[in-house]
Amino acid sequence: MNSTLEEEFLRAFRGSFTSALRWHHLDALWGNVHRDAAGGWFIYALGEEPPELPSDAVQVALFLTHIDQLLREDHAEDYCGIVYADDLSDPSFIKIYDPHNLGVSCGYSKNPPLPGWVMCKIPPVKLDQSLAAAKSRQRWWRKLWHGDS
């Protein structure tokens, strides 16, 4: 990947984001992504190799269904607050934090945790995953994405 695309991705990754604080905010965000499912979304599970091609609309819909279920089951709170988008109504970059690796994702930290998943319209670059995804998350991703058991 050329350095210009890498810089563009990293600039967007470090940009300004807004939290889908409540579950209805997340529902609205997913609705906006569903309407743009064929819009060239790259879906990247940190700890895996970044995708070289964007997902098709079916893959985007499948991912949204499964990640929504995972978040609601594993983040049993009355609020969401672990999904961030560059623009909730017209997103092009979304960070999804793993409920089992939150650290201080919503507060200030010199070393905030990386999200578990990124959805973006820019080809992603491999991010330093200092905390490797838990084996159960790797199995979940591979089963979802590759049909592995």
3D architecture notes:
The structure is a single chain. The chain is an alpha+beta fold and 149 residues long. The protein has one domain (3-146). It has 4 helices and 5 strands, in the order αβαβαβββα. A 5-stranded antiparallel β-sheet has the order 1-3-4-5-2, covered by helices on one side. The longest helix is centred in the middle third of the chain and has 18 residues, at 57-74. The radius of gyration is 14 Å and the shape is globular. The mean pLDDT is 86.
Question: Which helices and strands, and how do they pair?
Answer:
Layout: H1 3-13, E1 18-19, H2 23-35, E2 42-45, H3 57-74, E3 83-85, E4 93-96, E5 117-120, H4 135-146
Radius of gyration equals 14 Å
Please tell me the overall pLDDT: 86
Q: What share of the residues lie within helices?
A: 25-40%
Q: Give the tally of β-strands.
A: 5
Global morphology: globular
Low-confidence stretches: none
How much β-strand is present in the residues? 5-15%
Helix count, DSSP H or I runs of 4 or more residues: 4
What does the main sheet amount to?
5 strands, antiparallel
- Total tally of structural domains: 1
Give the class from helix and strand content and strand pairing: alpha+beta
Instruction: Describe the oligomeric state of these chains in a short phrase.
Output: single chain
Strands ordered across the widest β-sheet = 1-3-4-5-2
Q: SSE order in H/E notation?
A: HEHEHEEEH
Distance between the termini: 31 Å
